Structures are given as structure tokens and as C-alpha cells.
Amino acid sequence: MADGTSLDPVLARALEHANLPSLVPVLVQLTGDRRWCREPYRPTRSRGMDNNDGGGFADEVAAEIRAAVLDAVLAHEAGAPAAIPAPTGELLTELLTLATGEPAPPEYADMLAEDLGFAPEPAPSVPAGADIDAVVIGAGVSGMLAAIKLREAGVEHVVLEKNTEVGGGWWENTYPGAGVDTPSHLYSYSFAPRDWSTHFGKRDEVEQYLREVADAHDVRRSVRFGVEVVAAEYDEDAAVWRVRTADGEVVTARVLISATGALNRPKLPAIPGLDTFDGALFHTAQWPDDLDLTGRRVAVVGAGASAMQVVPAIAGVPERVTVYQRSPQWVAPNDVYFAPIDTAVHELMRRVPYYRAWYRARLAWNFNDRVHPSLQVDPEWEHPGRSVNAVNDAHRRVFTRYLEAELEGRPDLVEKSLPDYPPFGKRMLLDNGWYRALRRDDVELVTEGVAEVTPTGLRGDGGTETPADVVVMATGFHTHRYLWPIDIRGRGGVGLADVWGPEDARAHLGITVPGFPNLFITCGPGTVLGHGGSYITIAECQVRYIVDLLARMAGEDLRAVEVRPEVEQEYSRRHDEAHARMLWTHPGMTNWYRNDAGRVVSTMPWRIVDYWRMTHEADLAEYATEPRREH
Ligand code: NAP
């Protein structure tokens, strides 16, 4: 009998590119043979966020796994059904443990089964004729998702988008080097996989992906482009939101869903002289279209995620790049960060049943909650200045070793780049080539904040003067001012900005606020992921919750729901209490997650699996409800 390789050399070649730990559960599912769950077929765990493609297998074991998958796929294509097409519960937990090389807690099974399509939940639906319609603000990642799911549920809706295309932040941020640092197979909607060309999609591909999802789901049919929302007022008598646009138009709907994101409004710090600069000065999110940096002197303010992508991407083009770094960031390595994805992998994803699912499951495991326990402060820990517990200290050693290796022979840069706070204290960054860029002769790192912008350049707060033709403000976003600058008025005309103040936003589940009936927020307070993971996962939780709530409203014939104040207060209490035990409230930490009073406003303290469960079904008992009035 011919062996699989000669029967299908294309698939055999593709399997050479496989992530082996993802293949083992595939084998169990296709064949039902549990011997693949035992040694020597159990892969090792990933170190850090590495892909661990080889799985730690000896060559002959790897070859055996590939050959068995080849045979099983060919048999499947010839008509043999998969032995275990949809594992759930204990078996799924066992397979996740197998795929990741680590014991997986049982509570992950339900979330995983739904995400991977093994146990699809019936989508919530609103009966025809229900008196519920919605305005969605923004057509970025969350707004598109809302449009897709509202349509599936049968809710009439319109999306008002200030830009001329879908994509939100991905459409707006065109700075060189822009890209995602969550793996692309995870930074994809669960229902819209893509054959990504790199492991970490660059901006153009992510933006193209979002446009393609919009095409596939006919999202633009629901969107009015070039329409900026400036205000929204709740009309208590009619129980509707009146949404005002910059052109003075008023759009009315029962429900208002905000999908404006947390990183949408560029923040320019109040540095003296900002408007006196003679050259081009702009925020990273407002990169000019036709800017030529050749031979120019560029100064970059900030060393966060955006700066870390810009500087390696432009280095070598300008005559000189000078970075003003007020505080250094922790940077993690990743073994496939720059690697293209071979087209053979696309073949695998298409042809090997469950491979895409397990590949995503492993990424979700490695990038989502795995690090969460190590962000809990150990009150007994003896070195609170440098780390918060023993595992966090081990992270510190790993990242420090990486930094020292990348900056070998440059003790000056090591000293400037080594953070003095615990790893993960600010948003963890993946190495975009930052350290390599810093080593260049034409890149200079100034470890000062900026005291003044002058007509000809920058002056640091340590006195360093840098002449510049171009100043790039990589200074982040207004992350605490949710929905700002939209003027949202709820019951009694009360302003959301007045309830929250400039930087103390809070909401039940990050989604809904007492006094603001039928207002639902995606990417709201306390729902940014600081420990890892894909924001799209959170958006899917939130949109599912919102649509589920609307379906329940329709089912009970309600015209308004408003979260009870005590429910929100209890949620916020638990949120703050959980944060009090975590790294981001640690003394001395500065980051964009917390406000000036030290309260963490932006970041979620829960594991993703906990938030998934909290938002999986809406509970009307948490809401004051208002029945529909008969006309
Ligand atoms: P950011 O992380 O908040 O960084 C802002 C930088 O500007 C920091 O280095 C900050 O210094 C500095 N800064 C602020 N005010 C300053 C002042 N007055 N003088 C001197 N320096 C000042 O902002 P970002 O880089 O735009 O990133 C924001 C978030 O967007 C990220 O955390 C991430 O969630 C997302 N993002 C992700 C990616 C990615 O996926 N790779 C890329 C870009 C953005 P201090 O640290 O000392 O405050």
C-alpha cells in the first residue's frame, strides 16, 4: 500500500510546518485513539509566549505524529468520520492539558468549547415586531461586531461612524510599524478566521481583515460614515435615546451602544511650547500621509507601545532619531514575532480538521490568563520594589537576561533600559526590534521627560537639548475618559462625565451604568486587558451580553432596563478589591491603567474565563425594568 506521503506530498510538506502540540489533540479527535494522550506524545509546555512548534518531541516521535495525522486526514477526506467531533467538559479539559503541556483548570472547557465551535450556543434573538432598535457609535472592532450580532438577532440598528471606512483605531493609526502584538490567530473574531501572512499582523493586514469581515457580513449596509456623534440624551417619557451628530441631525433609538474604544482620543501632554514648534509635530495616531523622513532629524516623545513600533520602523531613514524616554518598559521576546507564516500552514488550517481550533486554543492559553496568577501581590514577598511575587521575579530575570543579551556590549543602554518596577506593571510589550534600533549610531536614547518644546526642537527636564525637524508624540490616549468628548445625558439630564468625573469611570461589568437606561458600553471601564489576551475575546463577551439582554427585554416586553445602583456598586467594590491585591495598584507604579488617585480605571482584574462567565447570560434581576406602554 502506498504511504500517505506519496499519496499527498502537498499535505506531507505542509505538515513539516505544523505546530506539533496542536496536532496531538487533532489525532485524538480524528482517531479516538487515547494512546496519543500518553507519553511520548505529550508536548512540553511553551516557555513564556513562545509558539513551541517542535513541542519538545524527539525527531522520530515528531515524524510518527505527522505520519499519523497524514493518514487520519486522508482517511477523513475519504469519508471516515472523526471519532470525537465535538469534545466538551472533562475530555476537552484533558485535550487542552495535552495541547499546552500544562494542567488546564476545568473551568476553561465551556468557554473553549464555544470559542472553537465544539458547543455553539444558540444566538440570542429578538422576535419580529419587538419595539427595540439601536444606535451604535463607532464601526471599529466592537462596533462592527455589534452590527453583525444585532443583525443576527433581528435588532434594527444603525452604526454612526466618524471616519469614512470601518476599522476604528486600525483605520486611523497608520504610523510606520503599526501592528498588533496579540497573535493574529487570536486577534480575529471567533467566527471569522483568516489565513494571516504573519504571526502578528501589521496594521495594513489587520485593517484589510476588518474590511473583509465587513464585506462578508455586509456590515456597511448598517453604517453611516462621516457621521460624528457629539451628544446623546435619554428621553425618559419616550424611553429613547436622542443622539445628536456634529451636523445637528438627531437620530433616535431605544438603545444606545457605545463602541468608541479606549484608545481613540490621542493625548498630547500639556508640555510648554507645544504649538511653537516650527516643523511637523503630530501624535502617532495622526501620522501625516505623505511625510518623508529622509535625512531629517526626528525626535520621539515617549517609549510606550506606539514608540516601540515607530522607532525600529523608521530608524535608518532620518538622519537621526532621538527618543525621549521618561520611563523604560519591560519588553518580552517572542520566537515567531517577525516570522512570516508559510502558505503551507494555510493548507494545514484548511485541510487538517480541528488544527486551526487547536492552534487558536494554544494561543489563547499562552496569551490569555496564564500570567494572571503571577500578577497577584504576595504580601510576604521580600523584594516588593522589583517584583510582586516569586514568579513575577522569575519573569523579571527572564526579561532582564533578554535585555542584557540584546544590548550586550552597551552597558550604557542596559542601564537606561532596565525598568525599576515589576514586569507587567505597565503594559507588557513584545520586542519589535526596539533594542536593536537603540544600538544604532543614528538613534539616541535620552532618559528624560520633555520640559519644553521650542521652535527648533525639544528640551528635556534634565536639560538635554535636541534640535529636530519632526517631533512624534507617542504619548498615548485619553484612556480614562470613556465616551469623551461625547456629551451623554441620562435620567434627569445628568451627564455621564459628571457622574464619573474626568477619570473615575465605573460600570457594572464595564458595560452599564445606573441612571443611564438602555446605554451599553463596549470596551468600557475596567475591561481593558492588562494581563494578556485578545481584546476581541472581550468584545465578543460584551456584545453577546448586550444582545442577550435585548432579547430578554423583548421577551418580557420591556422598553427600558437600568442596572440597579447596588448591583453596580457591588461589582465596582469587587473590581477594586480584586485590583487591591494586584500588581497595578502596587506602590510606585505609574501606568495608563490607573488614575491620579491610584484607582485602576481601565484594566480588568479578572481572568478572561471569569469575565466570560460573568457576561455569558444577562440577568434581568440586576436591572430595574420598565414595561412597554400600550399606545
Ligand atoms: P503609552 O503606552 O501610554 O505610552 C505613552 C508614552 O508617552 C510613555 O512612554 C509615557 O511615559 C510617555 N509620556 C506621556 N506623557 C509624557 C510627557 N509629558 N513627557 C514625556 N513622556 C511622556 O501610549 P501608546 O504607546 O500609544 O500605547 C497605548 C496603548 O495602545 C498600549 O498600551 C496598547 O494597549 C495600545 N497599543 C498597542 C500596540 C501593539 O499592539 N503593539 C501598539 C500601539 C498601541 P511614562 O511611561 O513615563 O508615562
Automatic annotation (TrEMBL):
EC numbers, comma separated: 1.14.13.-
GO MF terms, alphabetically ordered: oxidoreductase activity
Broadest EC class assigned to this enzyme: oxidoreductase
Gene3D superfamilies to which the protein is assigned, alphabetical: FAD/NAD(P)-binding domain
The keyword Oxidoreductase is annotated on this UniProt entry: yes
Domain of life the protein comes from: Bacteria
Keywords: Oxidoreductase
InterPro entries: FAD-bind_Monooxygenase_sf (IPR051209), FAD/NAD-bd_sf (IPR036188)
UniProt key word Oxidoreductase: yes
Protein name: NAD(P)/FAD-dependent oxidoreductase
Organism expressing this protein natively: Actinomycetospora flava
